[in-house]
Specification:
Elements: H1 2-7, H2 12-24, E1 56-59, E2 67-69, E3 78-80, E4 83-85, E5 93-99, E6 102-109, E7 124-128, E8 132-136, E9 171-178, E10 181-182, E11 188-190, E12 193-198, E13 201-208, E14 225-229, E15 237-245
Antiparallel strand pairs: 1-15, 2-5, 3-4, 4-15, 5-14, 6-9, 6-15, 7-8, 7-14, 9-12, 10-11, 12-13
The structure holds magnesium ion.
Magnesium ion is lined by residues 123-125, 133, 135-136, 230, 232.
Length: 246
């Protein structure tokens, strides 16, 4: 005992007391109602241009394998140097796979050479479930109706700020989508919600959708559906598209 007591100096005493406390009172410091598990899945987060480890990569710049034309058949859009670009008149494209709740990362660029005004300047769109559009538009020093500018939920929600970069520069959207939930009889149980960050800036904060964004804003019962990108006859480009199912 004499030799043991000699080895425990003043610095070691708090350390030993901490170990004894953990052994005697495991978890007590967390409180009675603490949820200790199961813990959220550990993943590797990505940098801006790198998909996280659990993402489904929809476009990495090499092919259109994950996509098809909304008119049927293969994608007619242009693919060069890792970038896809709308070929006007070749229709929207959509994923072959259908999705529900999701986190979507997508990078887009309106043409450096500015053509057109308002809704005809760099117009495209990201349609969650082919029904709910996050607007893509050149809204840098360009006016249009505010619920139709870049980052709007088309004709429903104005973005909180205009976080647009100049035409010709790559921009990011990070989108969190909660699907609408329907009752068995087709009536709406819970609406869809969208959260959008543009270039890292929050522009839509869990906004409630009134229904589809084309035509009358109504809900029609549906399940999982593909993601689609709009051919609005403007030379908008996309790259680095990935999705995480939630
Ligand atoms: Mg559009």
């Amino acid at each position: 005992m004499k030799s043991l007591s000699l080895k425990i100096n003043k610095i070691e005493i708090p350390f030993l007391l901490a170990i004894i406390a953990v052994l005697i009172f495991p978890f007590h410091s967390f409180g009675q109602n603490t949820n200790l598990g199961p813990a959220p899945k550990v993943i590797t987060p990505g940098l801006v241009t790198t998909p996280p480890s659990d993402a489904i990569v929809l476009f990495d710049g090499t092919n259109f394998d994950a996509w098809e034309s909304t008119k049927g058949g293969g994608v007619k859009w242009d693919l060069k140097k890792g970038i896809m670009t709308v070929v006007p008149g070749t229709y929207d494209i959509m994923t072959k796979k259908s999705f529900g709740d999701c986190q979507l990362h997508i990078e887009w660029r309106s043409p450096a050479i500015v053509v057109g005004e308002s809704q005809n300047r760099g117009n495209s769109g990201i349609f969650l479930q082919r029904k709910y559009e996050v607007q893509v538009l050149d809204s840098y020093n360009s006016e249009t109706y505010i619920d139709g500018q870049a980052g709007s939920i088309y004709k429903q929600h104005v973005p909180l700020v205009n976080a647009c970069l100049p035409p010709g520069e790559w921009q990011t959207y990070d989108i969190i989508f909660n699907v609408p939930v329907f009752n068995d009889n087709g009536t709406l149980n819970s609406p869809a919600y969208l959260t959008v960050l543009q270039n890292g800036v929050l522009i839509q904060n869990h906004v409630e959708l009134k229904g589809k964004t084309s035509g009358e804003a109504i809900y029609e019962k549906h399940g999982k559906l593909p993601l689609s990108l709009q051919d609005h006859r403007c030379l908008v480009s996309y790259r680095n598209i990935w999705i995480r199912e939630l």
